[in-house]
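Hi C.,

You asked whether I'd gotten around to modeling the 182-residue construct. I have! Everything is below, sequence then structure, no commentary in between.
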Amino acid sequence: MPNIFESLIATIKTSLDYDTKHPLHTGEVMSCWVYYTALKEFIRYEEVGMNTTIDDELLRLLHDAKKLCESQVKQLESFMVKEGIPLPDLPSPKPKSDPKDIPMGAKLTDDEIVNGISLKVAVAIMNAATTQSQAIRNDVGGMMAKFQIEMLVFGSTLKTIMRKRGWLRVPPFYNPPGKLDS
């Protein structure tokens, strides 16, 4: 049976010895490009939410989400430009509008907005984790680990607010046949 401490030390040595000057492999490039694109689309969704809701708590949440995404975009964009990865063409920022001017049939509800944010956070966390696990270069893996942790922290705050406000969607509880009621 392998010694966990020896394995950990060997992993750290390998990580420290690996030269980050090696070129990115195609999976790392694609993962950075996809994560960057998802973040930029996430920002557009947050802008739509800010133009739609009048709820102060949800507006603060949207501003926090946008700030987090913009921070990650800035870091990832700098990395991609440095590595020669072309940036995708993406939609322009949404102009500010008055939520009262949006017809009810076209307007997202607060519940729809917050659950959309929740879905996007979950996708970002999974994408960052996948990229981290596939990365050969430590700088890519480390950056994605940082992004994943930031999204996990934001997701925790998001879930707390969703529970408090009744926006958290919970699937039906499963009671297997023959289980005694507690």
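If it helps when you're writing up: The chain has a mean pLDDT of 90.

Thanks,
B.
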